[in-house]
Amino acid sequence: MDNDYECYDKKLNQTITFRKVTFDDVGRIHKWMNEDHVHPYWNLNVPLESFKAHLKKALADSHQTLYMGLVDGQMMSYWEAYWVRGDVVEKTYSSSPYDQGVHLLIGERVFLGKGYSLPLLREMVRFQFQSLKTKKVVAEPDIRNEKMIHVFKKCGFKPVKPIQLPDKTGLLMFCEREEFEKRWSNEPLCYPVQSNL
């Protein structure tokens, strides 16, 4: 999960890009964490200095990679792609060594409610499946977040069970490679910038 990903989405008529977060992004991500549509689910609406410490720790965590999501070059979302092994979610089901997970938020309000969540999620999951040993991507959205649960389902995730995590009750969801590829095989091809997962 080290390289950027980019594709042109024919339905959106826009380019979707994921690039790795750097510490220079801290101000923008902190602003997003304080948005009313974000903080009830992320619980990171903390003072900037506290968030700087949080982001430094997250960037140093080798089991995950943080991404900024862009649409036509405009930064608008934040993503955490992680390996399940070594994460708290690992203990909630019988995981395989190459299972991956994903967290996301749409930060910029102008992009809310306009159909961006699904194509972005689809491309992030496609990006994660470029690791050929990965057969499953998991998600555990806050069980109250019905809008995101709906988007995960449309992408190909199936609800498994509610799980208790340190900061929330999540809904464990699985997206199996076979189901994902079957669902999206007729979608226009997307062209990664480069990848050596």
UniProtKB/TrEMBL annotation:
Record's keyword terms, sorted: Antibiotic resistance, Transferase
Molecular function GO terms recorded: N-acyltransferase activity
Pfam families in the record: Acetyltransf_8
Domain N-acetyltransferase: 16-178
InterPro entries named in the record: Acyl_CoA_acyltransferase, Acyltransferase_MbtK/IucB-like, GNAT_dom
Gene3D superfamilies documented for this protein: 3.40.630.30
Pathway(s) per entry: Siderophore biosynthesis
GO annotation, biological process: response to antibiotic; siderophore biosynthetic process
Function: Acyltransferase required for the direct transfer of medium- to long-chain fatty acyl moieties from a carrier protein (MbtL) on to the epsilon-amino group of lysine residue in the mycobactin core.
Protein name as it appears in the record: Lysine N-acyltransferase MbtK
Organism: Halobacillus mangrovi
The organism's taxonomic lineage, starting at the top: Bacteria, Bacillati, Bacillota, Bacilli, Bacillales
